Structure formats: C-alpha cells, structure tokens
Amino acid sequence: MDAPPITPVELLCLGSSLAFSGLFYYLYRKKARVVARIQEAPKLQVDDSLPALVSAADGRCLPYVALEGIVLPAKAALSSHFHVGMQGVIQKLLLKEHRLIWNSLARSWTESERVLSEQVYTVPFLLASPDAEAVTQVSVESPLRAVCLPLEMVYERFQQPAHGFRDLLGHYLSGEKPKGILETEEMLRVGAGLTGLGELALHPDGSLHLQPPAREGEYFLCLGDWQTVLAELESARGFWKGAAMLCAMVGLAVLLHTLCRAIRHKHQDKEPEVEEDGDGGLEDSCVVCLTRPRECVLLGCGHICCCFRCFQALPTRLCPICRAPIDRVVPLYQA
C-alpha cells in the first residue's frame, strides 16, 4: 500500500503553523498601523495657542494628536491611604494573595496568585501647561478607556502569615501553602507629566477635551513623552513580526519535507521497472520472484524456471512448473 502524500501529524503541524502565522501577522499589522498613526500625529503641548489651532481644524477637532501637559484635578483630588499629603487623580488599591501549590508531576511547589480585592478610583482632571502664566487647560475624558493606566507605585507591603506546626502539617496534606498577602497602592499623582494620544476637540463653550478617537487609533495615557509609547509599540511590532516569520518557516519546512518524501517514493517506485528491463524482461526472469534471472536447471524434469534463492526457499522439493520431484539441481551458465 502506497504511503499517503502527507501524514496526519504533518497536516496538523502545517495547519497550525499557517493559522498561527496568520494570527501573528494580523497582530503585527495592527501594531504597525498604530505606530504609523502615532508617528504622523501632531506633537503638541498645552499652551495658550492651542484653542486657535484646534478651532482652525475641520469640525473644530484634531482626529489624533500627542498632547503633553501637567496633571491637575478639576475639583477635589484623591488622597493616598498610606502617605499623608500625597494627592492624585487616579488611584488603584490592590490586595493579592500568594500561595504555593504542590505540583505532583514536577514534584515541586509552584507559586500562584489570586486577586482578593481591586478598587480603582478616579476624579475629573486636566492637562495644564508647565508655564504658570498660561491659562489654557485640557480636560481628559474617559481615562479608564486608555490602553493602560498611567500609574506609579506609591505603596507596597507584603504580609507573611504566621504558621504553627498544625498549620504546616495541614498545608502539606492539602497541597496548598499560603505564602502571604501583597497590598499595593498606585496613583496618577497631581503635578505628574502626562502625555495623551487621542482626539482633541473644542466644544461650543470654548473648552478643550482630549478623548478616545472616534475613528482609527488607540487611546493612550502615559507618564513621560510620546516616544516612550512609540518604543513599546515598536518592540511589540517586532515581536509579532518575528513570531509570524517563525511560524511561516515551520510550515514551509513541513511542506518541503513532504515534497521531498513524495519525490523519493516516486523514484523508488520506478527502480523495479529499470531492474526488470536490465535483466532481459519477464521471459528470462524467475517464475517465483519475477525479478532475478533464472539460474539453475531442475533435474530430472529439466525445467529452467527459477533462481537459486527461490529454489532454496521452496517449501517442497517439487518443480514450480510441472510439480515433478526434484532429484538434483545444476547451475545454469549463460554465455
């Protein structure tokens, strides 16, 4: 039975590599579009010339800009739970439990974590100019819709529980051992330098608003300048491009391996035909194997019908042609 042109394992590898290559290429193209959008966006700072610039645009709106400014609360600011006098406009309180779980396959303890509590608070805030004389301010809309929150760690504490002998024995029997609880606080502090990438619109009341883009583009809020966001996106773009190329190369290798095997089998199938032609065809070949030439004379019937190897393999000492008993065998020499 001929071997199939491609095995199920090779088909699975080829399909998986093509699927993952397509997925990774899609992610690469998505990141590439965001990078191109940021590179083309106007780079602005909050100052008193900003309202006139936006007012001159179509629809009194700039579809995508990179805007830098200083964070100020629109009303009352949030106060830190752990630092007196520290204020911010976005606050994230996180309580996370760390445990050690016994892995019976690896025969070792592996660490796992579980979020016990997560709370995010925000108040309306503005972007202002570092220049104290400038009066223009930009309201930042929907900060929680940004790709990631521009927070910095202001408090971190890891509390380890006290274990007695009975607790330790119970942990080993159950396969779970509490390691501790991590308590953190992150904030976007008042006065921090912030860069927003989004849509800048001028409302009828004369106020400026930075908001998520209505069309193409992602909404970013980051500490620092726009080049920080661009560097991270370019790194992600390079990663997805490399992953797509790697999967495509794996699929190509599987395909080439399958083609080489098919060509090799095709040549192997042609070899017996060449051998038969070289030995004089079926007329002079052994009547048993049909491949090797006739090499012996069977006496007493005198038939010349098989090769010596097939004669030795006969189950009974009878001529394959006439079924007469074979007394002896004489080699056949053809000049």
Report on this model:
There is one protein chain. This protein has 335 residues and is α+β, with helices and mostly antiparallel strands. Among the domains are: 51-224, no CATH class; 282-331, Herpes Virus-1 (2-Layer Sandwich), CATH 3.30.40.10. It is built from five helices and 15 strands. The strands form three sheets. The protein has a five-stranded mixed barrel with strand order 2-6-7-11-10. A hairpin with an 8-residue loop joins strand 6 (125-128) and strand 7 (137-140). Helix 1 (8-40) packs antiparallel against helix 4 (226-278). The longest helix is centred in the C-terminal third of the chain and has 53 residues, at 226-278. The radius of gyration is 40 Å and the shape is elongated. Residues 273-280 have low confidence and may be disordered. One of its GO terms (biological process) is protein ubiquitination. It is a multi-pass membrane protein. It catalyses: S-ubiquitinyl-[E2 ubiquitin-conjugating enzyme]-L-cysteine + [acceptor protein]-L-lysine = [E2 ubiquitin-conjugating enzyme]-L-cysteine + N(6)-ubiquitinyl-[acceptor protein]-L-lysine. It comes from Callipepla squamata (Scaled quail). Pfam families: GIDE, zf-C3HC4_3.
Note the main attributes of this structure.
335 residues, alpha+beta, Herpes Virus-1, five-stranded mixed barrel, 5 helices, elongated
Q: How would the global form be characterised?
A: elongated
Low-confidence spans: 273-280
Helix proportion: 25-40%
Q: Quote the average pLDDT.
A: 87
Strand content: 25-35%
The oligomerization state is single chain
Number-wise, the strands total 15
| Major beta sheet, strand line-up | 2-6-7-11-10
**Number of helical regions:** 5
Class of secondary structure makeup: alpha+beta
Radius of gyration: 40 Å
Distance between the termini: 39 Å
Biggest β-sheet description: 5 strands, mixed, barrel
Helix and strand pattern: HEHEEEEEEEHEEEEHEEHE
